[in-house]
Design a protein that fits this description.
Rossmann fold; 13 strands; 2 domains; UDP_glucos_trans; UDP-glycosyltransferase activity; 372 residues; UDP-glucoronosyl and UDP-glucosyl transferase; 5-stranded parallel β-sheet; glycosyltransferase; alpha/beta
Length: 372
């Protein structure tokens, strides 16, 4: 049956994405492109210095700057703190580093009657709970997406994660109340298991445990661009030369300590020596790159010690360590045999779309849920 969409009703729609990097903004911008194609006027709002994120989306008619972005040093400290967290520690220490002021968008809906929609990379916390999913998504202990194989003790531990955090929850509630009082916000934001606004989840059942959703929640993933940067000649030649390549990308915000980076690098070199793989492409950004101890050595069991500095300078033909790689094109190549990833929302969606076998090393929130 052919479906005809009525595009005569048009709105001005503001897309907002301020923190988390371009990978957080991309799904929102992709939705904006669809809305613009239906005749709506689409604007984009973000923090200063990030306005270029919309450059590949000509349908965005106006860009708004919301003020300075989080300083790089603060962002790095924030993510370094999050990397040290484990779900079994409870959510208290995480709440100390978060302000959770997204309620301001809900205030606009209440005060001005502006409908809002929120995009989540995973099933949201506290919404649409079901009895067979213990705890809260992203905070689950020992990778328990469902209770199917969980012991009674493990189910209890998952439920206790939030209980142990109550002192921090009370402190955050008090802080929030004072902030709202100073801004003369007199109404409260409703808290209920079913949202009173649109909630989009950039995931899909299969990656997420299946469950009933209320009318205003919709699974819409994976949201991926129809086009992506192709392989340049150097990457194409590398992948054609090494038919058992491992692609490594641990995310923009994952900055591991030198000892952990050396462990991963040593494992990759040992896998090459053992013949399990014959090539490595490790895409690693500026911040994480600085944590490599260039004076250290990789010590494979069979062979000479390899200076880390030489590997980082790509003096070994079978290992490439770029600051950026055309990820989707690399994942789509048949000679990419394994993807070592942190399991963030975009990476999980991309590797599943391109069908690349994956080894996940999750650190927090949706990464842990995707790894499970």
């Amino acid at each position: 049956m052919e479906i005809h969409l009525d595009c005569s009703f048009k709105r001005c729609i503001l897309l907002c994405s301020t923190v988390g990097g371009f990978t957080h903004a991309a799904p929102v911008l992709e939705l904006g492109a669809v809305l613009a194609a239906r005749g709506h006027e689409v604007h984009f709002g973000t923090s200063s210095g990030q306005e270029h994120w919309e450059s590949d989306y000509p349908s965005i008619t106006r860009v708004h700057s919301f003020g300075p972005a989080m300083p790089d040093a603060d962002a790095e400290a924030h993510y370094a703190h999050m990397i040290q967290w484990r779900p079994s520690d409870g959510v208290g220490s995480i709440m100390e580093s978060k302000l959770f002021v997204e309620a301001a968008a809900k205030d606009m809906m209440i005060e001005f009657g502006v409908p809002i929609a929120v995009m989540w990379p995973q099933m949201p916390f506290f919404l649409a709970p079901v009895s067979y999913i213990p705890g809260q998504p992203g905070f689950q202990v020992d990778f328990t997406p469902t209770s199917e194989k969980a012991s009674i003790w493990l189910r209890i531990r998952n439920e206790m994660v939030l209980f142990w955090a109550l002192p921090h929850v009370f402190a955050w509630t008090s802080w929030t109340r004072e902030v709202r009082k100073r801004q003369v916000v007199k109404h409260s934001v409703p808290v209920a298991p079913k949202p009173n606004h649109l909630v989009f989840v950039n995931s899909f059942f299969g990656l997420e445990p299946a469950k009933d959703l209320p009318p205003l929640m919709q699974v819409v993933g994976p949201i991926l661009g129809d086009e992506y940067p192709p392989l340049d000649e150097s990457y194409r030649a590398f992948l054609e030369s090494y038919d058992k390549t491992v692609y490594v990308a641990l995310g923009t915000h994952i900055v591991l300590p030198p000892a952990e980076l050396l462990k991963i690098l040593t494992g990759l070199v040992m896998a090459i020596d053992a013949g399990h793989i014959n090539g490595v492409i490790w895409s690693i950004g500026k911040s994480a790159r600085q944590n490599f101890d260039r004076s250290a050595h990789v010590k494979p069991p069979n062979g000479d010690k390899l200076p880390v500095g030489d590997i980082m300078d790509e003096k070994h033909a079978d290992i490439r360590v770029p600051s950026f790689a055309p990820q989707r094109a690399v994942l789509d190549h048949p000679n990419t045999r394994l993807y070592l990833t942190h399991g963030g929302g975009s990476s999980a969606n991309e590797t599943l779309f391109h069908g690349t076998p994956t080894l996940m090393l999750g650190f927090f929130f949706d990464q842990l849920a995707n790894s499970a």
